[in-house]
Amino acid sequence: MSHVAWILITGALVAASCAFVGSFLILRRMAMLGDAISHTALPGIACAFLVSGTLDSFPMLIGAAVFGLLTAFLVQTLHQSGVQSDAAIGVTFTSLFAVGVVLISLFARDVHIDLQHVLYGEIAYVPWNQLIIGGVEWGPRAVWMVGGTFLLALVVIGGLYKEFKLTSFDPAMAAALGIPVLLLHYVLMGLVSLTTVAAFESVGAILVVAMLIVPGATAYLLTDRLGVMLLLSMLFGVLSAVLGYFAAAALNASIAGAMTSVAGLLFLLVFCFSPRYGLLARRRLS
């Protein structure tokens, strides 16, 4: 398969997987928690390197996922203790992110775990990092990592679709019906953590935040049905990845940056022209 094809496949998988789990963050009004988890993965990556002594993807994935869950736990605990949710997120992610910076500066300064590598990523290099089993190349590692986490999210959320739907729209009723609301919250946060970390290699942590939020926010303006919203968010994500790649090729610009810019442009168009919730539609009704 060609270099370009692998880039498009990776970008589409990243965008679709992030949009899928990110839609639930939007419905739960926890969009910025995705930003927090993407940043607090840094100390997880640093700790994984210190423990394993390797830069292999699997230890990094585990380390970052553990710190993603820790972030969700600390934010939830602070919020239940009386701290406002936005303040709880800000305190948690800045503190843990700073710990990651300190750990890397102390113990990994001579290793290629710099902030640019972790936070920005470079999807153009993804096809060169192949998964080799038995001397045979099976495609880029990023494709397997992102594809595996995407499949896991589809299976978990698909199997518990009604529960996730009810806890997203009415957690009080879900609790009254005996649904473990807090457990499902941490399951979702775990999926967000895994999805975020798996996408590091291709687009980096900062741009993952956009893919977590923008496609879902765009779909939210077009429908009131969760199933349709999930499908539309993934469609917008994949469209952003494909159009973004060709825009980057034409402009000789950052691929991941172009993908995110296209996602923002699609959101702007829908925000203006959505038949029910668009800016123009609201002005006509007023």
From TrEMBL:
**Entry's Gene Ontology BP terms:** response to zinc ion; transmembrane transport
Q: Signal peptide location in the record?
A: none
Membrane-protein topology: Multi-pass membrane protein
Localization, per the record, is: Cell membrane
Major place of localization? membrane
Which UniProt key words apply to this protein? Answer: Cell membrane, Membrane, Transmembrane, Transmembrane helix, Transport
Q: Which domain of life is it from?
A: Bacteria
Which InterPro entries does the entry link to? ABC_BtuC-like (IPR037294), ABC_TroCD (IPR001626)
UniProt keyword Membrane present: yes
Please list every transmembrane segment annotated in the UniProt record, as residue ranges.
6-26, 33-51, 57-75, 87-108, 142-161, 173-197, 203-222, 229-248, 254-274
- A Pfam family hit: ABC-3
Q: Which GO terms describe its cellular component?
A: ATP-binding cassette (ABC) transporter complex
The record's similarity note reads:
Belongs to the ABC-3 integral membrane protein family.
> What protein is this chain from?
Iron ABC transporter
